[in-house]
Amino acid sequence: MDAGLILKDGKRLFGANKTWKGFLGMIVWGALAQILWGLLLKSIPTLEKLHLVYAFYENTLLFNMVLGALLGLAYVLFELPNSFIKRRLEIREGKTAENGWKWTFIWIDQIDSLIGCIIFLLFYIPLSWQQMLGILILGAGTHLGVNRLLYWAKLRKNRM
């Protein structure tokens, strides 16, 4: 994404792992995932009633496509500041800090995009602090779990 741009500090803006393919892919996959989620919930009305967004908006194909694309956009946009900071601290792309920053960045890596999605959602629906905290905890746990599964399946190089 940064086209190899090197800043005055001699470091890449975001690094090689941030690509337009990934950026645009997340928007497309976000839209597809939300469409599928909407279809699944439409077939289970009891669960559909519990959905935070569908309490305010109708569960339609077009709505889900737009919602998923915008959540995907929020997701990738909020990864960028973390990548920028990690390059400044000389943390390699796709790696975790090996110093005192290690656990800080492990958690930031799990929640940066979730924060972006929550901020986006706040423009459209009211969320209590408990709901936001629940989204962060559930999302971070899911992210860590998926990372572990991908690592064990040898589809990911780092455990976290």
Description:
The protein has a domain at 96-160. The radius of gyration is 17 Å and the shape is globular. The protein is mainly α and 160 residues long. The chain has helices at residues 20-42, 45-48, 61-77, 80-88, 102-122, 129-152. The chain is built from 6 helices and no strands. Helix 1 (20-42) runs antiparallel to helix 3. Keywords: Membrane, Transmembrane, Transmembrane helix. This is CDP-diglyceride synthetase.
Topology, pairings included?
Elements (H helix, E strand, L loop, with lengths): L19 H23 L2 H4 L12 H17 L2 H9 L13 H21 L6 H24 L8
Helix pairs in contact: 1-3, 3-5, 5-6
Note the main attributes of this structure:
160 residues, mainly alpha, 61% helix, globular, transmembrane helix, transmembrane
Structural class: mainly alpha
Helix content: 55-70%
SSE ordering: HHHHHH
State the end-to-end CA separation.
Answer: 23 Å
Taken from the alpha-carbon principal axes, the silhouette is globular
Unreliable residue stretches? none
Q: Main β-sheet, in a few words?
A: none
Q: How would you state the average pLDDT, rounded?
A: 92
DSSP E strands, number: 0
Any idea what the radius of gyration is?
17 Å
Keywords: Membrane, Transmembrane, Transmembrane helix
Transmembrane segments: 20-41, 61-80, 101-125, 131-151
Protein name: CDP-diglyceride synthetase
